[in-house]
Write a structure and sequence with these properties.
The structure is a single chain. It is built from 9 helices and 16 strands. It has an 11-stranded mixed beta sheet, sandwiched between helices. Strand 9 and strand 10 form a beta hairpin. The longest helix is centred in the last third of the chain and has 16 residues. The relative contact order is 0.14. 28% of the residues lie in helices and 20% in strands. Bound molecules: threonylcarbamoyladenylate and magnesium ion. The site of threonylcarbamoyladenylate (TXA) has 26 residues, from strand 5 and strand 6.
């Protein structure tokens, strides 16, 4: 299949190109498009055959449900049984990087929800995403536009790398601003459960809802035979080809440990800006300043993809703090590392 590539400026969107992509969606095709979190791979949310094409283009297991993207929060009524809490969340965080899981209506085919009776709804803020959904006049089901198992795409080059020849079109709209996928919560009466952390932090959610539980799979490995609250949690996502280990400890000890490791192994370090001047002769990719969690979030997936291209045997990254968007970084890194954490003390160096 020949994949058409449309370049669209998010600040000055081209209606002709957007309409052509919306036509592709309406006729059952697949279009990758930018959002503020990561690129999505879209299909009409009410078309079960189009949904099946998403699973095959990504190589995604069919029990892992898709998020439905809407143009305005009230459009959720067509697809889900909403509640007062949904509208509180919507007025605080939508459009934006929040996904809400609610009981589904029959307009959503079970192929889209992986057989679940709930549906995940999100109203993105990216202008291209919003205009595409509006022009399609239907919700757009969209997982991240990567091959299943590789890091989510944060720029069009990543999407082209994974999806060229497998889908009808890709809209190139520049770099994703946030770089990690949306926060996912499920509503249960008047409480929330955080299923996947993202840029909308738990503290922000607590301003709207008194009780925000964190699903154990956010930070812990699933136990054998445990059924996760969100099917995506059971898959080892974001895995670079070389094994990744997370390093914890005092900053100076960790840097020293990484320098020593680099002498003995063909390894690469996802490094903080502050330690780069110390890393002479060491392979590294800079991920931003130590305290700048937003920048680390934005760069993480691109850095994991780049690490794959550098033919190393091992990758080391810092264990992030679990505060704010750090919890989202922690969640992605701990899974990419298959929960391998090395705690460094002076005697290890
Ligand atoms: O930022 C994002 O959310 C991006 C952009 C494209 O919007 N999308 C995204 O989709 O990350 P995906 O498919 O890569 O991740 C969706 C996650 C999966 O882990 C899936 O298991 C979970 O959402 N999910 C979807 N529907 C669900 C449901 N009904 N109940 C629980 N989890 C659900
Ligand atoms: Mg994904």
């Amino acid at each position: 299949m020949q994949t058409k590539i449309f370049t669209v400026d998010p600040e000055n969107t081209d209606a002709k190109k957007i309409n052509e992509c919306a036509d592709i969606l309406r006729s059952g095709g697949l279009v990758a498009f930018p959002t503020e979190t990561v690129y999505g791979l879209g299909a009409m949310a009410t078309d079960k055959d189009a949904a099946k094409k998403i699973y095959s283009a990504k190589g995604r297991p069919s029990d892992n449900p898709l998020i439905i993207h809407i143009a305005s929060p009230a459009d959720a009524e067509r697809y889900a049984y909403t509640s007062e809490l949904y509208y509180k969340l919507a007025s605080a965080f939508m459009p934006g990087p929040l996904t809400v899981v609610m009981p589904k209506k029959s307009t959503v085919p079970s192929e889209v929800t992986g057989g679940l009776e709930t549906v995940a709804i999100r109203c993105p803020s990216h202008p291209i995403a919003r205009e595409l959904i509006r022009a399609a006049q239907c919700a757009v089901a969209a997982p991240s536009a990567n091959l299943s198992g590789s890091p989510s795409p944060t720029e069009s080059a990543h999407v082209i790398n994974d999806m060229n020849g497998r889908i009808d079109a890709i809209i190139d709209g520049g770099c994703a601003e946030i770089g990690l996928e949306s926060t996912i919560v499920s509503i249960d009466g008047d409480t929330l459960t955080l299923l996947r952390p993202g840029a909308i932090t738990r503290d922000a959610l607590l301003c709207v809802c008194e009780t925000v539980n964190i699903a154990s799979a956010v930070t812990e490995a699933l136990k054998e035979n445990e059924r996760p609250l969100s099917p995506g949690m059971k898959y080892r996502h974001y895995a670079p080809k070389a094994p990744l280990a997370l390093i914890d400890g005092e900053q100076n000890d960790v840097t020293e440990f990484l320098i020593e490791k680099s002498k003995a192994e063909n390894c690469l370090i996802l490094a903080y800006d502050e330690e780069i001047p110390l890393l002479t002769g060491v392979k590294y990719i800079g991920v931003g300043a130590r305290q700048d969690l937003e920048s680390q979030a934005k760069r993480l997936f691109g850095a994991l993809r780049e690490a794959d291209e550098r033919s190393v045997d091992k990758i080391y990254a810092h264990l992030p703090v679990k505060d704010g968007i750090g919890l989202a970084l922690y969640n992605r890194l701990i899974r990419a590392a298959a929960h391998t954490v090395i705690t460094v003390t002076k005697k290890d160096i």
